[in-house]
Amino acid sequence: MFQTAEELRAAVGRSLGPTQWLLVDQARIDKFADATGDHQWIHVDPVRAASGPFGGTIAHGYLTLALVNLFLPQLVRVPGAHMGINYGTERVRFPSVVRSGARIRARGEIGRAENVEGGVQVMIRVTIEVEDGAKPACVADTVSRFYF
């Protein structure tokens, strides 16, 4: 929890988290497919996907990325700011898949905090872990702005 821009700047290098585990079930995957129009069989056809390269359906990479937005407020709270905005993402990678029925959680690290007019811009590397997974499912360098 950070109250001021100075506290955020002083936290560069700090590790954050982990968050609570989140189940990524087939219903969530199907809703994301409906929302985005991406109905590729590896995501939405459990019968066909069972004999596919992952042994079952997997979450869309962009679903995993979208869940960063769910996890960020669990990693960083800035009640001293009057407004926080998502400014973008600098780099995103998907080193492994999230199988339907898996649980994921996030960890973060504050990589950079720079002054902007009226506040601070913070780069937080968010790493999405898969329970019992050898590699993360997603690593995203997020950029947020907090205004004070």
Describe what is shown at a glance:
It contains 6 helices and 6 strands. It is of the alpha+beta class. Strands 1, 2, 3, 4, 5 and 6 form a 6-stranded antiparallel beta sheet that branches.
Describe what you observe in this structure.
The protein has 148 residues and is α+β, with helices and mostly antiparallel strands. It has a single domain (5-21, 61-147), classed as Thiol Ester Dehydrase, Chain A. Helices cover 27% and strands 36% of the residues. A hairpin with a 7-residue loop joins strand 5 and strand 6 (138-147). The longest helix is centred in the N-terminal third of the chain and has 11 residues, at 26-36. The model has no long low-confidence stretch (mean pLDDT 98).
Short descriptors:
single chain; 148 residues; alpha+beta; Thiol Ester Dehydrase, Chain A; 6-stranded antiparallel sheet; 6 strands; 27% helix
CATH topology: Thiol Ester Dehydrase, Chain A
CATH superfamily: Hotdog Thioesterase
In CATH's first tier, which class applies? Answer: Alpha Beta
Largest sheet descriptor: 6 strands, antiparallel
- The count of DSSP E runs of length 2 or more, i.e. the number of strands, is 6
Low-confidence stretches: none
Approximately how much helix is present in the residues? 25-40%
The total of helices stands at 6
Question: Radius of gyration from the CA trace?
Answer: 17 Å
Distance between the termini: 14 Å
Name the shape in a single word. Answer: elongated
